[in-house]
Amino acid sequence: MKRIFVVFLALLIVVQVQTAVSQAKKLPHIVILATGGTIAGSADSKTSVGYTSGAVTVDVLISAVPTLKDIARITGEQIASIGSQDMSDSVWLKLANRANEILAADTVDGIVITHGTDTMEETAYFLQLTVKSAKPVVLTGSMRPSTALSADGPLNIFNAVAIAGDPASRGHGVLVAVNDDIHSGREITKMNTTAVQTFESPEYGLLGTTLYGKQSFFRGPYRKHTTASEFSVVGVKVLPRVDIIYAHADMSADLIDAAVKLGAKGIVVAGVGDGNMTTKALDALGRAAKAGVVCVRSTRLPSGHTWRNSEVNDDQYGFVASGELLPAKARVLLKLALMKTKDPAQIQTMFDTY
User: Fold this and answer.
1) Does 128 lie in the same domain as 40?
2) 235 in a domain, yes or no?
3) Are residues 298 and 180 in the same domain?
């Protein structure tokens, strides 16, 4: 009788293990790519203002959110360990190519990228244009370092993983998940230097919201992205140089002329109002365009369109109008566009499309 009980107990354990394994296989497989940032930051105390970005590895970030195991099978990779103020073209290229490699695997359901908030909107838009998969790619970060009192990173990671593992997220392009909000990578921008609720999508609003891993999508992106994008960075080692020049009262021509002399292939002007600038700066930008530098007019304002041929005759000067793309994102698109053409008319079509 005792032997029968032992055999029964052993069989029960085997069944339970097999059930657990089967359930684990049903969970989505999400790969977390870490780049550093405040979310991986470390400070001397829980209330310290100063901290070191990128000090915490991806394994530590994952272990800090033990409930991840309940919603996904997690794999982590360290792509970079930097503050996002040091984000570079080389890291963008590495990140985009690695993301495409991972997403091509049938065993992977989505990707989460941990990133500093300072340039997250630029990286998100770059990936929006260069990732070639409908599978979810979700960026997240935090405004407080991992060692802070009430750190916002762990819940942001949890929500990002839940979104990446949700089949409803497919086809929405690159997403950014912060503070229970789901933004499009094309439309999000950082609006406050230190506030936790720093991110907004001022023109078109949120794509959706999330609450402890439960998503509600309100809409989808309306511009071409990811699988419909014409841009590819396969085999690309260097991106064209594009400079942003900030417009202001009594703006001189010097910085525009200097950018041309220093080898800029494109210039984005963060103009006043509807992409405006002083007459002398406008003349300098016209000279740059005639010299073959592609020049884009954007605005330093946080929202609104920069309209073509509105207050500036773009046709006459050979300029490109950025539409609702703010300068940082106009720079991203222009860098990719310049790998295909230097024709301002063709690049204007790209700005109208993406």
Assistant:
1) yes
2) no
3) no
Contact 30, 161 (CB under 8 A): yes
For 235-287, the pLDDT digits (tens) are 999 999 999 999 999 999 999 999 999 999 999 999 999 999 999 999 999 99
Q: Which domain holds residue 330?
A: 242-353
Residue 11: pLDDT band (50, 70, 90) is very low
Overall domain count for the chain: 2
In angstroms, how far is CA 35 from the centroid of its own chain? 12
Residue 38: active-site member: yes
Helix (H, G, I), strand (E, B) or coil at 239: coil
190, β-bridge pairs = 199
* Structure token pair of residue 183: 């933004």
Instruction: Identify the active-site residue in 35, 38, 117, 226.
Output: 38
Compute the distance between CA of residue 159 and CA of residue 39 in angstroms, rounded to an integer: 14
Stretch (H or E) spanning 67: none
pLDDT of residue 156: 96
Q: Provide the pLDDT for residue 225.
A: 98
The residue among 228, 253, 283 that closes a domain is: 228
What is the mean pLDDT of the segment spanning 94-114? 98
Q: From 165, 199, 228, give the residue that closes a domain.
A: 228
